[in-house]
Amino acid sequence: MTFDVQESASVGATVDSITLTATAEGRTFSPLILSGDDVKQLAGTNHVGSQSTLSVPLSLLYSTPSGNANLEVSVSVQGTDDRSNQVTAAGQVSVR
Length: 96
Known about the structure:
The protein is mainly beta. The protein has one domain: Immunoglobulin-like, CATH 2.60.40. The chain is built from one helix and eight strands, in the order E-E-E-E-H-E-E-E-E. The protein has one helix at 36-43; strands at 2-6, 13-24, 27-28, 32-35, 47-48, 53-57, 71-81, 86-95. It is elongated and about 45 Å long. The protein starts with a strand and ends with a strand.
């Protein structure tokens, strides 16, 4: 899968971390935390320019209690914009 981090406030930002927390069938899995260096390794950079999108490819291997592919993933992106402000964005992804 690919996570797209899109900047829409006309100020670039550096992604400091991405936290993925998955749930399936009432079970919450331990969070997966990608550091800024992890993002840089996966995407080639951890900076998203003004009015741009940073695409972060990621492969996950997981097993749910019943073996079904139903997985809900909460995504939280923490960063620092080019004006040194701390920023956070969050979203939800369904994997079927």
